[in-house]
Amino acid sequence: MLSTAYLVAALAPLTLALPAPTADTCSDQSTFENANFDDLGGIIGTNINTIPTPYKGLDFQGFTFASIVETDLIPGVIPHSGTRYALTEPRNQLIMGTSMLTTNFPDSTSQSFSLKSFYYGCQLDLQNGAAAVPTQCNIELTGYCGNDNSINDATQKGSRQFQYNPTTALGAQQMASSGDIEQYFKDVDFIIVTSTLPAGEQVAGALLGTFIDDVEYDLKTCS
Questions:
Q1: Considering only 44-48, 126-130, 152-156, 215-219, which range has the smallest mean pLDDT?
Q2: First and final C-alpha spacing in the chain
Q3: DSSP states along 59-114
Q4: pLDDT tens across 138-168, in order?
Q5: Residues of the chain with pLDDT > 70: what percent?
Q6: Which CA distances in Å does 90 have to 15, 76, 94, 208?
Q7: Which residues, 6 or more positions from 52, have their beta carbon under 8 angstroms from its beta carbon?
Q8: Residue 173 burial (CB count, 10 A)
Q9: What is the DSSP letter of 190?
Q10: Model pTM?
Q11: What angle do CA 149, 222, 114 make, to 5 degrees?
């Protein structure tokens, strides 16, 4: 009969050979991203299309992307660069949920991101066949840290409000710049985007469309 000491000695190498448990590897290093939407392909003949998830590491929830063929001829807000930008409006939000940029989505490897800057603009869709009309608006971004997209379970990191003031309601209008805002949105998990007309203003039968372009951020990922 084998002794206990012999059994322990014989089994020890087998125990040491077992693989160690694996864990996600997260990096403190970040990669720079510029979401300008010009590299996205849509359905031919359709100027409003879905943004895939992920797009450059984020879910642009509540946003679609719009394609503008002749930026000098179409009245309304035009992209800051290229011919495409992201759009959110009430119909999007009814179908896709609250407008936000988030790292929280199925099979995500994105850990957090730091928003550096973006371009923005607003216009009214009159829904009567008329051209869209550039309009003043207030856009608010609020950044959170949390494992899901619920603000009830998250910690607010920062918030900033921006005003869009087109020079005229006629013709093509340039987007405005947020400037450097990284200090307010450093290492956040998601940012909620809301937009409203100036206090007291309301247009019957019109939808407020909010556009963003050249969204620049540093992205941290896990593997």
A1: 126-130
A2: 49
A3: EEET-EEEE-S-TTTS-EE--SSTTEEEEE-HHHHHHH-S-EEES-STT--EEEEE
A4: 999 999 999 999 999 999 999 999 999 998 8
A5: 79
A6: 59, 18, 6, 7
A7: 40
A8: 22
A9: E
A10: 0.84
A11: 55
